[in-house]
C-alpha cells in the first residue's frame, strides 16, 4: 500500500469512528469486509430483553444502531465479543424503536447493517373486551413469545406505581393470533393492566403499554365562540364509544348525561344553554362492545373548564367640549382561575370603516373605566372593546360609536322674532340637542327636542347661528356644521368698470333686502348699502382707487333677521402706476414691465391707439409682456389689471379682476 493512501485511510477511519451515524462499510486494499450479522432476534437475559444474533467468525467488534420512529440510524453501543447479544435499555415499552447490528473483523472494516428488528412488533397490543357483562384483557400474538403474564395496578399513578402479577389462565383463538386472560377483570373501581411476554428461556420480555378501564387525562380547551368548550381524553383500548356527563358543580360529581355513544375521544360541547363566563364540570365513561349502560366503565376523574365571558356592556360619555370620551363597564363576575386569564383591548377608529387602532389594554377588575383624551369634537368616534383570554381575543367585540350629526338643516325666519329650524331625522335618535351662538364661535346649549324641528324666539337685526347634535341612548354625537338664518347669498361676482366695481349675486328665497359691506383691508367692514329685491341683485361701488385692494361681503335680511355675511370677495389692486414701464424695443415692438401684486395669479393687458378706447390685448402670469407687430414710430397706450383665479382639478372655477391701472404710453422706434 502506498504511504499516502495509508494516511488517507487512517484519517477516513478516524472520522467515521468519531461519527455516530452509520455511513456504510469502508473499503480496504487488503481484505474484503465481513457480511452483516444474521439471525437477529429478541431473548431474555437476567430478566431483561436483549438482542441476539448469530456469532460472526473473526469478529473483533459489534456495533448496535437504533432508529426512533423511522428516523436515521444512530450508533448507541459498540463492544468486543463475546457475547453476540446486547441488553436493550428500558424504553417504557411504547416507543417505536428499530435495531440493526454491524460487525468489524480483523480486516478493520465495518460490515453493512443487518436486517432491522422492530421492538414494537414484539409488544403485545392489549385492550379490554366485555362479554356477557364480564370484562377480559385481550392482546395480539407476539412472535417468538413462549407465554404471557398479566399485571394489575390499582393506584392513582400508573407511570410510577408497581404492577402486581395476576393469577389465572390464558387462552387463544383457534388461529393462535388473539390471546385472552380468562379470569374476568373488574371495571370498577379503576384498575390499570399490562401484558408482558415470556421468552422461551422463561424470562420476561417486552411489555404492552398499560391500559385503563376508564378514560384518563380529560381536559377542556377554550373556544373563541364564548358558548362552546372542546373536550378530549385518552382512548380506552377496546372501548366502542364514550358517554359524557356534565354539571355546573362538582359536589359530589357531574351527574347529567349530555351525550351518549361518542365515537371519538373528543367532543365539542356547544350546547346553546351554556352560559358565558361559567365553570362546567365533566366526566366521561367508556362503553364496551356489547352494550350501553350495562357495560359502561366507571366515570373518569372529573375535569373542568370555563366558557369564555361575553363581551362587556360598555357605556360611553362623550364630553366633546372637553375633548374627552370616557368608556366604562362592569365585567361579569368571574372565578379567580378564569379572571386571572382575562383582560380587555380597546380599539379606536375615526370613521368606523377603516382599520381600528389599539389604544389601551385593561386588566380584569370589578369595575373598569378609560378616558380617551384630545379627541376631535367635530367628528364621530368609534370604539370596540374586546374580551381577551390568554389564548387570544374573543371573536366578537362590543362596538360603541357616537351618533351621526343631523343633515339637511335649514333655519328660516317665520315671524318678526321666531326662527324655524328643521333637519332630516336620524334613525334611532332619542333626542336632539340645539346649540345657539350670536358670533359663530361660542355656542351654548339652547334646548332639547325629540322631533327634528324646533322654533326659536330670537332678537331680529342680528345673525343667529345653530348647531345640532344627535343623542342615541346615552351617547351624544358631534355637533353639525353651523347654519345661520338667513343664508348668505351665493354666486357673488365683482366686475370692474373704470373706477367702479359692480357686485352681482344670486337671489336668496324670501330675502327682503341685502346688506353690502366693504373693507380696504379685509378686516374692518362698513355697510355700503341695502338694496331691495326683486330688481336689485347688483350694487355699484363707484369712485374707487385702482391702486388699492377692495373687499366685499353680502348678507341676506329676512323678516328683520340678518343672516351671516358671505365669504369675502377680494378685488385685487392694479399694479402701482409708478412701476409700470413701457419701453420701445424696436420699430415694431414695445416691452411692458410692472411690479408684482400680492394675491394676483395673472394680469390682463389692455391696449389703445387713441388713449380713449381700450381693448384686451392679452394676459400674462408674470409682471412682463411684449407687444409685437407694431408700425414704425407710432404711439401706443396701455393699462394693466390684476386677476385672482381659483383653480380646482386644473380648471379655473372663478376669477375676480381688479380695476385697470392708469395708462402708460410709448412710441415705437423709427
How does the overall form come out from the CA principal axes? elongated
Tell me the major beta sheet: 5 strands, antiparallel
Q: What level of helicity do the residues show?
A: under 10%
Which structural class best describes the helix and strand composition? mainly beta
Overview of this structure, please?
Helix content is 3%, strand content 45%. A hairpin with an 8-residue loop joins strand 19 and strand 20. The N and C termini lie far apart (117 Å). The radius of gyration is 50 Å and the shape is elongated. 29% of the residues are buried. The N terminus is likely disordered. The strands form 14 sheets. Strands 10, 11, 14, 15 and 16 form a five-stranded antiparallel sheet that branches. The chain contains two helices and 55 strands. It is an all-beta fold.
Task: Show the helix and strand layout.
Blueprint: H1 3-18, E1 41-45, E2 48-52, E3 59-68, E4 74-79, E5 85-87, E6 97-105, E7 117-118, E8 127-131, E9 134-140, E10 147-153, E11 164-165, E12 170-172, E13 178-185, E14 192-198, E15 204-207, E16 211-212, E17 219-222, E18 229-232, E19 241-247, E20 256-262, E21 266-269, E22 279-287, E23 303-306, E24 315-319, E25 324-329, H2 336-339, E26 342-349, E27 357-363, E28 368-373, E29 382-389, E30 392-393, E31 398-401, E32 410-413, E33 418-422, E34 431-437, E35 444-449, E36 453-457, E37 464-472, E38 475-476, E39 483-485, E40 493-497, E41 500-504, E42 513-519, E43 526-529, E44 538-541, E45 550-558, E46 561-562, E47 569-571, E48 581-586, E49 589-593, E50 602-608, E51 615-620, E52 624-627, E53 635-648, E54 651-657, E55 664-667
Antiparallel strand pairs: 1-2, 2-5, 3-4, 3-6, 6-7, 8-9, 9-13, 10-11, 10-14, 12-13, 14-15, 14-16, 17-18, 18-21, 19-20, 19-22, 22-23, 24-25, 25-28, 26-27, 26-29, 29-30, 29-31, 32-33, 33-36, 34-35, 34-37, 37-38, 37-39, 40-41, 41-44, 42-43, 42-45, 45-46, 45-47, 48-49, 49-52, 50-51, 50-53, 53-54, ...
